[in-house]
Design goal:
Strand content: 15-25%
Helix content: 40-55%
Order of helices and strands: HHEHEHEHEHEHEEEEHEEEH
Shape: globular
Strand order of the largest sheet: 4-3-5-2-6-9-1-10-11-12
Structural class: alpha/beta
Radius of gyration: 19 Å
Distance between the termini: 66 Å
Number of domains: 1
Number of helices: 9
Largest sheet: 10 strands, mixed
Length: 278
């Protein structure tokens, strides 16, 4: 029996995919650089996490899919740790992997629907052999929105690493009508970044029931952070009682300048000297 040759994709679709995978990543890299460097950042409850990052401690960062736009920029600006993230094998995943590589990330291709086991194994190997920090979007790539899937808990159990969750929102945003209401941040903005109240450790001998409890705990905390920064810009909450500081990034230098609420400057060295409250 003679096999029929595989049909080529329509020219329009091939051109679209080429532009998506070759031009779009560069444009997105440039856009996030422009947004991040023209905006003022309010950094809430994140000093302990920044300290971990600059000390080179290993960890797992959990970020909702709809808040993933600016996170690679933050990691690149802060510098220090090598990072590997999990992205899906879809065309959108390929796009994301190319964007992440421009920021210096490594990528493991897989998701909860396809190749997830292999991607987790690749991330584990990168962490064990080269000390990579791990980043995962626990509700990606297809949702449901803001529902933590078990993969991140399994990763924490097998590595013994703490899960650190991070979120952000901004004064001026556009919410796409996608499954996750993806957040596009505009330039010349005020962006509030927030860190989780605690690091979640999953014991190596955790039972399935206990892992589900940790999953629910992480999901609740990540939803709380999203709500807090959204309420902050809606004027429903203030920063009273919160640990926070301001950050401005030099447009050409890419150097961060940190300022306390009282106006005093401090540096990475000051941060590393201070007591870790995590």
């Amino acid at each position: 029996m003679i096999e029929e040759p595989a049909k080529k994709k329509p020219l329009k679709k091939r051109v679209r995919n080429w532009l998506l995978l070759n031009l779009a990543p560069v444009l997105m890299w440039l856009y996030t650089q422009f947004v991040g460097r023209t905006s003022r950042w309010v950094v809430i409850n994140n000093e302990q996490h920044l300290r971990m990052f600059h000390q080179g401690q290993p960890y797992i960062a959990a970020v909702w899919h709809n808040r993933s736009l600016m996170m690679p920029f933050v990691y690149q600006i802060e510098g220090g740790k090598k990072v590997i993230g999990m992205v899906s094998r879809s065309i959108d995943g390929q796009l994301m992997s190319r964007i992440l590589k421009l920021f210096g990330f490594e990528c493991a291709l897989g998701s909860s629907t396809r190749g997830g086991k292999e991607a987790l194994e690749e991330m584990l190997k990168a962490q064990r052999t080269e000390g990579f920090a791990l980043v995962i979007t626990p509700d990606g790539p297809l949702g449901p929105k803001e529902v933590v899937k078990p993969g991140v808990i399994k990763l924490a159990k097998e590595t013994g690493l703490p899960i650190v969750s991070i979120s952000y929102y901004a004064k001026k945003v556009y919410r796409f009508k996608s499954w996750d209401r993806f957040v596009m941040v505009w330039p010349f903005n005020t962006i509030a970044g927030i860190g989780s109240n605690e690091r979640i450790y999953v014991p190596a001998d955790a039972t399935m029931e206990q892992m589900e409890q940790y999953r629910q705990k992480l999901e609740t905390e990540m939803r709380r952070m999203n709500k807090f920064v959204e309420d902050y810009f809606a004027g429903k909450v203030t920063l009273e009682g919160q640990s926070y500081f301001y950050s401005k990034i030099g447009f050409f230098s890419g150097i961060t300048h940190w300022t306390r609420p009282d106006g005093t400057r401090f540096s990475k060295e000051d941060l590393l000297k201070s007591k870790d409250e995590g």
